[in-house]
Design brief:
Layout lengths: L17 E6 L10 E4 L11 E5 L6 H5 L10 E5 L3 E2 L5 E2 L3 E4 L2 E4 L1 H17 L11 E6 L1 H11 L10 E5 L15 H5 L2 E7 L7 H11 L5 E7 L8 H15 L2
């Protein structure tokens, strides 16, 4: 239920520089399965990196569709969560339902964050990109993970320049792990998008995230979409496209 349903039409053409097959590096330092879209052009001799993180029960393919319509100057990797649910479904962490409340497995969250950080750290040995321009774009559980990674960064973790958090939330325990690195926060830009009729992660969660993020010394843009359920509408995608392009045009 948490797969993004992107309804924008494309012309169906695939650029020659797009790698459409899922690849898992034979070396242990890139142990997470991922899809790659190479940058088609270079901005200021530096290539920014964008990592796409899918939602619960989905896979790298679901987010990779966005790579066709995002700024061609980005090196884009759609990363698959390490925990498998079924043949095509994966998750970043387990969830349980206790008295109608969702309980998130914090141990899983920390384990997946550790794997993601290691994955990002080791990317520079396989790809050329500007390590000061690393962006995360996540949907649902992927958005929660993106915010977790960005807001807990320190001198021992990869620097995150920006986050697109679509239909997500801020995990309850995140504030206890919030980074003390004010400089990292000051360099951070975040776009939060959410539908008012989301029945998986309610709009109240997005408004709570907005309230929390407004108290931090970062650059925040928050957008609600009337009558958008747990998905990515055309209007939302257009805002995401514009925001991402503006980040590398600053």
């Amino acid at each position: 239920a948490q797969n993004p349903q992107q309804t924008t039409e494309t012309n169906g053409t695939t650029k020659k520089n797009t790698v459409s097959a899922i690849k898992k590096d034979a070396k242990t330092d890139l142990s997470l399965t991922h899809l790659v879209r190479q940058a088609a052009s270079v901005s200021n001799n530096k290539t920014p990196l964008l990592l796409l993180l899918h939602g619960y029960g989905s896979n790298a393919k679901s987010m990779f569709q966005f790579s066709k319509v995002l700024d061609e100057r980005f090196l884009i990797l759609s990363v698959q969560a390490p925990m498998q649910i079924d043949e095509d479904g994966h998750k970043w962490y387990s969830i349980d339902f206790v008295e109608k409340n969702i309980v998130r497995n914090d141990e899983d969250i920390q384990k997946s964050c550790g794997e993601l950080r290691t994955f990002i750290k080791n990317l520079s040995t396989h790809f050329e990109f500007d390590e000061s321009q690393i962006y995360l774009m996540g949907f649902s559980q992927g958005a929660i993970m993106s915010l977790e990674i960005a807001l807990t960064q320190n001198e021992n973790t990869p620097n995150i320049a920006g986050v697109v958090a679509m239909s997500g939330r801020i995990d309850d325990k995140l504030m206890g792990r919030l980074t003390n690195d004010k400089e990292a926060l000051q360099k951070l830009s975040i776009l939060v998008t959410h539908g008012t009729t989301d029945n998986v992660i309610g709009i109240a969660e997005a408004r709570n995230a907005k309230k929390i993020l407004e108290q931090l010394p970062l650059e925040l843009k928050y957008k609600e979409y009337t009558n958008m359920p747990h998905t990515v509408s055309n209007e939302c995608l257009k805002d995401v496209q514009n925001w991402i392009t503006k980040q590398i045009d600053k």
